[in-house]
């Protein structure tokens, strides 16, 4: 099930995973159009973060 909402003009879509998937801090943003943009954002986000929490496209600081 999805829930769509807007905060300060920015549209969001939230997913309800049901009882098998408990609420957590995970969030995804679609902000890029090219791989170069993705690589640039990723390198900035991981700078100084916990290397053990940066696998498979996931980031946790």
Automatic annotation (TrEMBL):
Q: Read off the SUPFAM superfamilies from this record.
A: Glyoxalase/Bleomycin resistance protein/Dihydroxybiphenyl dioxygenase (SSF54593)
Q: Entry's InterPro entries?
A: Glyas_Bleomycin-R_OHBP_Dase, PhnB-like
List each copy of the PhnB-like domain by range.
1-60
Gene3D superfamilies according to UniProt: 2,3-Dihydroxybiphenyl 1,2-Dioxygenase, domain 1
Protein name, please?
PhnB-like domain-containing protein
Give the taxonomic lineage as stored in the record. Bacteria, Pseudomonadati, Bacteroidota, Sphingobacteriia, Sphingobacteriales
